[in-house]
Design goal:
The protein is α+β, with helices and mostly antiparallel strands and 414 residues long. The chain has 3 domains: 111 residues, no CATH class; 145 residues, FAD/NAD(P)-binding domain, CATH 3.50.50.60; 134 residues, 2-Layer Sandwich (Guanine Nucleotide Dissociation Inhibitor, domain 2), CATH 3.30.519. Helix content is 39%, strand content 14%. It has a 5-stranded antiparallel sheet with strand order 6-7-8-5-9. A 3-stranded antiparallel sheet has the order 1-2-3, with helices on one face. It has a two-stranded parallel ribbon with strand order 4-12. Helix 2 packs across helix 5 and helix 2 crosses helix 7. It is globular. Bound molecules: flavin-adenine dinucleotide. Flavin-adenine dinucleotide binds next to loops.
Length: 414
């Protein structure tokens, strides 16, 4: 707060406080951290408002844009530019919409929601996110579970309206009366479940999910620490290097999104950059560093023929941008890799490379996001099948809530 006050001024502090207050009613309406509870209906969402202005903020959640909200609370495009850029990036990275596009405010409210007032949402794990999955695997196998890694499920078998198990590539099978799918709900319902077992209206609803994630994710092996030049020397403090935002203004982000839809790579992309080894030295050999960059917008609607060229161009732009701030950065890179959504889709089976398993658009959140047994009022119609991925209510993000909800639903059936 002191930094905010000194650098951006008292108006920015007040505006940010008003923005956080704005987000409270939409956060209650969304209930993204309410484990074990179904999403609210639209009427129930509006019933979360305690005043007319809260009703209006719930309307923003459903119909408004990020820019509508920022213009209200942080209107000064110059003095509030950095904050506006950061908040716009926080929101639209989980959408296929520019910040001025109606419907983008949903992702701002989603990003600002906290489980409770004492919680900070973002935590970095020592050893990286893989240490979490290793821990879970150990817990699971210690409890007697059997995990078959690198076994691609090709079919969830259904007979007479009941799940009977799964078939994996190379023909191995597992018979089971209960299957919890942690793959994207639409992938589960349109590609994996025995096609004749899915009602056509149910299949059609899942099939419309928007997955046009539009980013690149880059990883770098560095031969030393990047050195940020004036006026950004503050970023040389390792405690600042867990999350460095090299953002664009909301106005630029909007233009870049519109350009990306026409197949144009942004000349100066917005980048979330981090050097996790600065705080967690075990992530790189002594004297070396591991860094990553996530950047918007990659033209995902482009033909296959142009894709590789655009990927190389976008990667170059990201490196150039970081090097403008830390002039030794490009020279430190010993290896780097650039993943587009298409790579993410191939590697992790997330449709369109969409790590949300369903972007955060108003038509894909709250009552418009499925739960363990389907969309509200439109059950899957398959006994023993449960959905537990980030594409379900409670997702996306590493919250465990969709999986918890699916497990509770499966246990309640017995
Ligand atoms: C670059 C990046 C940064 C992110 N940053 C954050 C962050 O800071 N905070 C946050 O909360 N979230 C973040 N996320 C989002 C978060 O990672 C996802 O929301 C979350 O991982 C989704 O969890 P999930 O278990 O539902 O699905 P996934 O993590 O997608 O897991 C699905 C698993 O199923 C496997 N699989 C796919 N198809 C098959 C098949 N046919 N058979 C068998 N297995 C299959 C996949 O290999 C994968 O292991 C980020 C995502 C990315 C890509």
């Amino acid at each position: 707060m002191m930094h905010l006050d000194e650098v951006h001024g008292g108006e920015a502090v007040a505006g940010l406080a008003q923005l956080v207050a704005w987000s409270q009613a939409p956060a209650r309406a969304l209930g993204r951290f309410e484990a074990g509870r179904p999403p609210k209906t639209l009427d129930e969402m509006y019933a979360c408002a305690t005043s007319e202005s809260e009703r209006a903020s719930i309307s923003d959640l459903l119909f408004g844009s990020v820019t509508d909200v920022l213009d209200r609370y942080l209107p000064d495009r110059d003095r509030h530019g950095a904050l506006r850029g950061m908040l716009a990036f926080l929101a639209v990275n989980a959408t296929y919409r520019g910040p001025a596009t109606p419907g983008s405010a949903a992702a701002l409210a989603f990003g600002l929601a906290l489980p409770d007032e004492n919680t900070t949402l973002m935590k970095k794990l020592r050893g990286g996110i893989g240490s979490l999955t290793t821990h879970l695997r150990e817990q699971f196998t210690a409890a007697g579970g059997e995990l078959r890694l690198r076994s691609e499920v090709t079919e969830i078998r259904v007979e007479g309206g009941r799940v009977t198990g799964v078939t994996a590539a190379h023909g191995s099978t597992a018979d089971a009366p209960v299957v919890v799918s942690c793959l994207a709900p639409d992938l589960t319902m349109t590609r994996l479940v025995t096609p004749s077992a899915v009602d056509s209206e149910v299949r059609d609803r899942f099939a419309t999910t928007d997955h046009r994630g539009s980013y690149v994710q880059m990883h770098f092996a560095l031969d030393g620490a990047p050195e940020f030049a004036a006026p950004y020397e503050l970023l040389n403090d390792p405690s600042m290097q867990a999350a460095i935002g090299l953002f664009s203004t909301p106005e630029e982000l909007q233009r870049q999104w519109e350009d990306c839809r026409r197949g144009v790579v942004p000349a100066d992309p917005a980048v979330a950059f981090q050097i996790p080894s600065a705080q967690d030295p075990g992530l790189a050999p002594p004297g070396k560093h591991a860094a990553s960059a996530f950047a918007l917008w990659f033209p995902v609607e482009t033909d296959h023929a142009d894709y590789a060229k655009l990927k190389a161009e976008m990667g170059r732009r990201v490196i150039e941008k970081i090097t403008r701030l830390a002039p030794n950065f490009a020279g430190l890179i010993t290896k780097h890799t650039t993943f587009t959504p298409r790579h993410m889709s191939t590697m992790f089976g997330a449709p369109g490379g969409d790590y949300c398993h369903g972007l955060i658009h108003p038509e894909q959140i709250g009552p418009n996001r499925p739960g363990p047994t389907g969309y509200p009022g439109q059950p899957l119609g398959i006994d023993g099948l449960y959905l537990g991925s980030a594409g379900c209510h409670g997702g996306p993000g590493i919250t465990f809530i969709p999986g918890y909800n699916a497990a509770q639903a499966a246990l309640a059936r017995r």
